């Protein structure tokens, strides 16, 4: 059989080669014989199967097609049609690559055929043009005007009033392929051509319901339109798109064939919820006909009984049938548990209070039976539209046609949803947020028609196609991304009903409805890919919602539902669950609700479950500390401790309590129906020191603390009694492990809402975890279970072979669990502080992992842990009972420096270069978190180790390592034990200067920050009068620092903002001898020029730092005031203080102008006059607020400006009055008014500062008046004296100005 088939293929191949050869030698004459011969030859070529065809060269097929295009006359319409079929056969089936010249010849032939051949051939010509244009749009630019110009052929053929249906469909398909150029060749199409194509697609979408077209052809037309719109949207070439017109069509086709309602497309959607619009009533009820056909199919086909699910029909009969079938499926799959009343209550709470648009949704329905898991696993993006399925898959019976129509409608809906997804990904989030009300339900807004009640959740909950549901959830996820600023105003609706509903309340109701609908979808979904996307969407929602402004309970419901999927067999679902948990524990600001959810599932000693019923929803560390670690001086706690001590002192009572606890544990383990219980299985373990073992310091008996706080039934006892659980572990002891939900259930079945586990029941081998199980948060347990390896043996054999091969979760799950721990430590460390030892050992195990990615994420967890420990050390003086003891933190760092950190900083040959660099960089970041207090208590050898490691890594070749090392140097340089060490400061300065010359922006940014810190150290040593340091610091290094800072002011804003800070510190540090040296004088002048430039350019942070640096420079009493650059600084500050729009920058400019402590600091009398006038003018312009965000700084700016004016006034001399008299004459009245306001402001705030008082200023002016020699001087001084004596009493009683406003209320 195989031999005969091979012989047949060889015959076919020889026949094809013979036909190609004859065609290449064929000489066409326009006579009957030539026409007949060519027609027969084309028939022979078309009859050959594509898989046996072969060409001698790459462009042989292309040359054959071009030859036919040149010789075939256009009036031979039938031969033209056969040539078009051959083009399709060669290009689409035989994958013939067209040369550029041949491509142009074919396009010319096809476009001329469209204009000269009769209409019945147009469909074949357009089909050939489709395959020619596909992926070749950038090669046929000279034909763009002919195809899609003002009167382009394709645009004309899309008119359904003059062209046949198949011609319109093929023209639209060709137009969609024409626009599919991708971003790489987006510039080849002019914007006017894209705009014309886009308008055609959208117009056809709106007109499709009114076309007298066959349903099959209409569905193909719709899919091609959506494909073309996606192609245009992706290349981002259209600047102005009428989104309302487009969204109206896209939204309507999202529910195409999904309901029995007619297809009504509104003329436009508006970007708000209150603008009314009337839908255009369609003349044809397409969806209703489809629904009737679908019902006939269900009634006539016996094999489609499973189709009657809640997502398909929505009738009560279908729902009842689904419930009965779903029960059978659950029994077969082992997913249900009888008598699970708690789960029924949970589901009922999720489904209750549904709005009108979802009233027909039955969330307990069976999965859509027409879709298999294999089909569901296929890619759901829009690429599948290019590979249309054969129409022969469906039979010619009425049921077969209905199934075909139903399948096409699913594809139309998927095309619309994919198009919407691409639009959401491309357009600005701010613009998309205006259209949220059209796609997300709002219970506060009642729509007038059923069509307007539909939303994305209609598709998510009711669409029978998992691909459509996937696209809808993906669209919602994309809509929610980066919307935190827009949702920040959301709040819950108040109980008081009013005629006006604020937008913030509407947002709050939308957010609550999104939670409820997504949880409904989570309950009803059975396809793992869609389930994964729903959980990811929940995580995205959690990350952007301001829960501190909403009523509590939303996060509890989310956590209550996703807990059933912690042990799902699909690793993607488990990863999504961890992502959602990470989003919950990563919410900022931290919430009390989350702290209650993640804490160990028991009440602390002496604290009832309702200890703080009136707590703020915001999480405060002191609240968590009180809940977990109450003050042990209270009578309530002492009583509880005494009672517990009595119980533990009585062996009989203790044994009775142990028996009761074991009995309760056995009851909970046996009662597998109760999924809401927090009590998990029992585990019989043998001691094993190989998994999550204690570090060497603990094994050797070295304790990390003197006492340990145990808020359970035990009293306080030394750590030595609990630090060695391995030695005290009894094999016969049954350990009751506390778990969360049903994640650790030993039963083979899983909850109704979950899925069967993909791995054996996890058994923890770490005895420390077992010993402190009641103290450990369930989140930490879940993360440890996913991070560490589990024994790859059945559960019933776990007691026989504990030392078995470790089975690890997939890498994404392990990494996600580590990220959850990082967020948990960062935001809720007060809640999990009791698990510090466990976290320490987990980090140790991650650092020993052979996978460098796990090791890297373990380093990130260590980074977060060291940061919170540093904060605990800083807060020890405030609340010593609520932090990790200092000695324990010190021992922890000693342990890290004795082995783990130096090992991480070494180059590991077993890892890749990239992996080594990432891990070493992360370890160097941890080195910077040691803290000044801990560093001071380290042995000298360890201090030298830290300094040596960081200095060595600052010269590494990798940019990430250098950046982390130079940042650590910037931290170390501020430590009191190191900043006075000249040798270290010299080494650090050289390393920082070396990093400033690195080509990497990241390294230079960190080095600039370290440079500014180094200069801060110089100033601190000078202020403390550390003469040895000032004397020994070399002049050449100081010159290099000034030159480096001067050159850095010209770089990016991130670098220049620190460079100007360094300049201010350097100028303040310099002694008099430095300003007398020519090289230093040039360097300082260049640095000051860069400082002046950055005062009035760059970001506001750069300007703020520049003004602050100028103020800092004037603090140097040895500053030479006769330099021109000093006057330039004052002039630029005078300009900034008047004109800058940012009030914080103006405040720092005012501080800079008031920085000189003596009259010589202001230079000439003209400079003093200019400074005084600019400050008064700045007071006037401070009243003009263009940005409301600056209003909160207005009073502070006024106070600083008035203080600066008073400071300058207190320093003026008689020589300044001549230049100042004219400014006082002009601005004297304004000066007095603001002095009155300043006095009131000072009295109200009762602020004490170093600004000279009005009495001191008046005394100075009076002394000058007694020495005045001219009348101009006396008049100027009298005006200033009058301004400095404000009449505050009369200011309050001043007669109000006349106004045209009529007071209507008493």
From TrEMBL:
<dbReference type="InterPro" id="IPR025283">
    <property type="entry name" value="DUF4042"/>
</dbReference>
<feature type="compositionally biased region" description="Basic residues">
    <location>
        <begin position="326"/>
        <end position="336"/>
    </location>
</feature>
<feature type="domain" description="DUF4042">
    <location>
        <begin position="411"/>
        <end position="594"/>
    </location>
</feature>
<feature type="region of interest" description="Disordered">
    <location>
        <begin position="288"/>
        <end position="353"/>
    </location>
</feature>
<protein>
    <recommendedName>
        <fullName>HEAT repeat-containing protein 6</fullName>
    </recommendedName>
</protein>
<dbReference type="InterPro" id="IPR052107">
    <property type="entry name" value="HEAT6"/>
</dbReference>
<dbReference type="Pfam" id="PF13251">
    <property type="entry name" value="DUF4042"/>
</dbReference>
<dbReference type="InterPro" id="IPR011989">
    <property type="entry name" value="ARM-like"/>
</dbReference>
<dbReference type="InterPro" id="IPR016024">
    <property type="entry name" value="ARM-type_fold"/>
</dbReference>
<feature type="compositionally biased region" description="Basic and acidic residues">
    <location>
        <begin position="337"/>
        <end position="353"/>
    </location>
</feature>
């Amino acid at each position: 059989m195989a031999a005969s088939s091979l012989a047949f293929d060889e015959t076919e191949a020889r026949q094809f080669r013979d036909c190609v050869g004859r065609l290449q030698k064929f000489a066409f004459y326009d006579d009957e014989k030539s026409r007949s011969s060519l027609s027969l030859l084309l028939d022979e070529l078309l009859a050959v199967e594509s898989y046996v065809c072969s060409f001698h060269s790459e462009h042989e097929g292309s040359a054959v097609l071009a030859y036919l295009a040149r010789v075939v006359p256009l009036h031979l319409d039938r031969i033209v049609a056969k040539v078009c079929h051959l083009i399709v056969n060669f290009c689409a089936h035989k994958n013939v690559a067209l040369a550029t010249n041949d491509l142009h010849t074919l396009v010319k032939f096809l476009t001329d055929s469209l204009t000269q051949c009769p209409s019945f051939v147009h469909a074949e010509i357009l089909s050939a043009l489709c395959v020619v244009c596909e992926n070749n749009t950038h090669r046929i630019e000279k034909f763009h005007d002919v195809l899609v110009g003002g009167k382009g052929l394709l645009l004309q053929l899309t008119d359904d009033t003059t062209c046949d249906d198949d011609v319109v469909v093929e023209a639209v398909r060709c137009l969609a392929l024409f626009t599919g150029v991708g971003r790489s060749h987006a510039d080849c199409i002019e914007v006017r051509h894209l705009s014309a194509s886009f308008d055609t697609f959208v117009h056809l979408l709106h007109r499709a319901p009114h076309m007298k077209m066959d349903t099959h052809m209409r569905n193909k037309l719709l899919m091609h339109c959506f494909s073309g719109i996606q192609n245009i949207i992706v290349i981002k070439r259209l600047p102005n798109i009428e989104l309302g017109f487009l969204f109206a069509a896209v939204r309507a086709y999202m529910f195409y064939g999904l309901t029995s309602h007619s297809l009504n497309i509104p003329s436009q959607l508006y970007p708000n919820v209150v603008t009314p619009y009337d839908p255009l009533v369609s003349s044809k009820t397409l969806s209703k006909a489809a629904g009737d056909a679908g019902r006939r199919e269900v009634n006539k086909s016996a094999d489609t009984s499973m189709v009657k699910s809640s997502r398909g029909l929505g009738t009560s009969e279908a729902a009842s049938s689904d419930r009965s079938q779903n029960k059978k499926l659950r029994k077969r799959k082992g997913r249900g548990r009888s008598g699970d009343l708690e789960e029924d209550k949970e589901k009922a709470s999720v489904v209750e209070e549904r709005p009108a648009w979802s009233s027909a949704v039955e969330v307990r329905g069976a999965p859509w039976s027409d879709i298999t898991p294999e089909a569901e696993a296929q890619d759901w993006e829009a690429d599948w539209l290019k590979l249309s399925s054969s129409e022969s898959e469906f039979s010619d019976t009425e049921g077969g046609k209905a199934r075909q129509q139903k399948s096409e409608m699913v594809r139309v809906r998927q095309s619309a949803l994919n198009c919407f997804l691409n639009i959401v990904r491309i357009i600005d989030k701010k613009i998309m947020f205006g259209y949220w009300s059209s796609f997300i339900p709002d219970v506060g807004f009642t729509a007038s028609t059923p069509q307007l009640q539909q939303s994305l959740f209609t598709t998510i909950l009711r669409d029978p196609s998992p691909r459509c549901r996937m696209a809808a959830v993906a669209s919602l996820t994309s809509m929610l991304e980066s919307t935190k600023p827009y949702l920040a105003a959301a709040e819950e609706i108040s109980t008081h009903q009013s005629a006006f509903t604020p937008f913030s309340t509407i947002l709050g109701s939308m957010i609550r409805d999104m939670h409820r609908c997504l949880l409904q979808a989570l309950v009803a979904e059975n396809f793992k890919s869609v389930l994964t996307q729903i959980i990811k969407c929940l995580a995205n929602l959690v990350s952007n919602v301001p829960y501190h402004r909403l009523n509590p309970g939303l996060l509890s419901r989310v956590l209550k539902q996703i807990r059933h999927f912690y042990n799902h067999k699909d690793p993607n679902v488990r990863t999504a669950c961890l992502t959602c948990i990470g989003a919950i524990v990563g919410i900022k600001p931290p919430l009390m609700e989350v702290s209650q959810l993640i804490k160990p599932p028991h009440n602390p000693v002496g604290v009832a479950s309702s200890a703080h019923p009136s707590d703020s929803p915001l999480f405060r560390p002191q609240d968590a500390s009180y809940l977990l670690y109450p003050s042990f001086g209270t009578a309530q706690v002492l009583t509880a401790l005494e009672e517990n001590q009595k119980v533990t002192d009585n062996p009989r009572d203790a044994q009775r309590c142990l028996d009761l606890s074991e009995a309760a544990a056995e009851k909970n383990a046996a009662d597998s129906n109760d999924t809401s219980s927090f009590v998990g299985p029992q585990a019989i373990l043998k001691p094993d020191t190989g998994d999550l073992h204690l570090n060497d310091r603990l094994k050797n008996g070295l304790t990390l603390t003197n006492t340990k706080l145990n808020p359970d039934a035990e009293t306080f006892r030394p750590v030595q009694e609990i630090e060695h659980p391995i030695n005290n572990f009894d094999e016969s002891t049954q350990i009751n492990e506390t778990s969360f939900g049903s994640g650790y259930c030993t039963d083979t079945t899983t909850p109704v809402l979950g899925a069967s586990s993909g791995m054996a029941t996890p058994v923890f081998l770490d005895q420390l975890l077992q010993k402190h199980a009641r103290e450990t948060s369930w989140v930490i347990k879940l993360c440890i279970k996913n991070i560490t390896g589990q024994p790859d043996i059945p559960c019933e054999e776990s007691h026989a072979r504990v030392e078995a091969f470790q089975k690890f979760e997939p890498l994404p799950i392990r990494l996600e669990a580590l990220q959850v721990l990082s967020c948990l430590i960062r935001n809720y460390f007060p809640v999990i502080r009791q698990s510090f030892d466990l976290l320490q050992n987990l980090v140790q195990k991650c650092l020993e992992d052979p996978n460098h990615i796990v090791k890297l994420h373990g380093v990130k967890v260590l980074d977060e842990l060291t940061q919170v420990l540093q904060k605990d050390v800083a807060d020890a003086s405030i609340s010593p009972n609520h932090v990790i003891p200092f000695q324990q933190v010190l021992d922890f760092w000693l342990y890290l420096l004795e082995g783990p950190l130096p090992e991480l900083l070494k180059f590991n040959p077993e890892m890749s270069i990239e992996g080594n660099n990432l891990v070493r960089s992360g370890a160097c970041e941890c080195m910077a978190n040691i803290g000044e207090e801990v560093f001071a208590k380290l042995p000298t050898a360890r201090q030298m180790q830290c300094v040596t490691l960081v200095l060595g890594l600052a010269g590494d070749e990798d940019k990430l390592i250098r950046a982390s090392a130079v940042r650590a140097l910037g931290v170390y340089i501020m430590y009191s034990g190191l900043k006075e060490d000249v040798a270290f400061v010299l080494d650090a300065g050289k390393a920082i200067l070396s990093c400033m010359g690195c080509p990497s922006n990241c390294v230079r940014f960190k080095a600039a920050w370290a440079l500014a810190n180094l200069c801060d150290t110089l100033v601190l040593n000078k202020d403390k009068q550390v003469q040895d340091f000032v004397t020994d610091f070399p002049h050449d290094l100081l010159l290099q620092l000034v030159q480096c800072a001067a050159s850095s002011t010209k770089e990016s804003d991130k670098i220049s903002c620190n460079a100007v800070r360094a300049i201010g510190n350097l100028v303040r540090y310099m002694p008099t001898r430095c300003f007398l040296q020519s090289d230093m004088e040039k360097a300082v002048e260049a640095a000051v020029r860069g400082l002046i430039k950055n005062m009035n350019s760059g970001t506001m942070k750069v300007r703020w730092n520049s003004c602050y640096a100028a103020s800092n420079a004037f603090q140097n009493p040895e500053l030479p005031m006769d330099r021109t650059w000093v006057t330039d600084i004052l002039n630029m500050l005078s300009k900034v203080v008047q004109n800058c729009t940012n009030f914080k920058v103006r405040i720092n400019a005012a501080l800079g102008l008031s920085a000189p402590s003596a009259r010589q600091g202001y230079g000439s009398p003209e400079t003093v006059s200019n400074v005084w006038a600019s400050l008064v003018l700045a007071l006037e312009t401070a009243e003009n607020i263009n940005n409301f965000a600056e209003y909160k700084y207005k009073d502070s700016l006024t106070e600083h400006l008035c203080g600066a004016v008073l400071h300058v006034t207190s320093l003026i001399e008689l020589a300044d009055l001549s230049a100042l008299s004219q400014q006082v004459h002009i601005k004297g009245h304004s000066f007095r008014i603001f002095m009155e306001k300043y006095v009131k402001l000072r009295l109200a705030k009762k602020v004490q500062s170093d600004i000279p008082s009005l009495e001191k200023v008046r005394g100075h002016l009076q002394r000058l008046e007694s020495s005045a020699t001219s009348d101009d001087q006396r008049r100027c001084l009298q005006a200033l004296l009058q301004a400095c004596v404000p009449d505050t009493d009369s200011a309050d009683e001043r007669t109000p100005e006349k106004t045209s406003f009529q007071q209507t209320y008493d």
